[in-house]
Design goal:
The chain is about 40% helix and about 15% strand. By secondary structure, it is α+β, with helices and mostly antiparallel strands. It has a five-stranded antiparallel beta sheet.
Length: about 170
């Protein structure tokens, strides 16, 4: 049996908790309604969802796929929203593949506060690109995670790849 591998980021809890306490209303609803996609790091919108780079990433390329509608559980999504959510998940992963060439991914959802959801009222899917050896001594020794690329640079690359893929259609 293979040993369980963990993404361990306890330093993020105070950071996320501060943000949630400061924010009035749902951050994902605000992002969904905003027209400032570049500033908000949203790089794809579909009829029912959007993909956005995580401001507080576990790893380079950490992306969130979010339904537009504020729902706290998968069972509350309509079938067209569910289809769109998972189609966008697959498409976003293909963009990350093309731009970043990771060795693997952690993909998942934290539904409810007890499961670790930072925004428990609005479901979303995390896509975390992973590379062999991407965990090093920095988090252990100095509580620091090195993210090797700026979010703006990655956002530009993902938008460019999205346009390239759509031009081929």
């Amino acid at each position: 049996m293979e040993k369980i591998k963990r993404i361990w980021a306890p330093w993020r809890v105070p950071y996320i908790t501060q943000i949630i306490k400061k924010e009035k209303g749902c951050i994902f609803c605000k992002l969904g309604k905003s027209k400032k996609d570049k500033n908000n790091l949203i790089f794809i919108r579909t009829e029912h969802c959007f993909a956005v780079l995580n401001l507080y990433p576990y790893n380079n390329g950490h992306t969130l796929v979010v339904p537009n509608r504020h729902v706290k559980d998968l069972s509350k999504l309509r079938s067209d929203e569910t289809t769109d959510l998972f189609a966008l998940l697959n498409y976003t992963k293909s963009l990350l593949d093309a731009v970043m060439h990771p060795d693997g991914y952690n993909i998942g959802m934290n539904i409810g506060r007890a499961a670790g959801a930072g925004v428990p009222g609005h479901i979303h899917i995390h896509i975390v690109p992973r590379w062999s050896g991407d965990a090093n001594f920095m988090p252990v020794v100095s509580n620091t995670k090195v993210i090797s690329q700026s979010l703006k640079a990655l956002h530009t690359m993902l938008c460019r790849e999205h346009k390239r893929k759509n031009a081929k259609r």
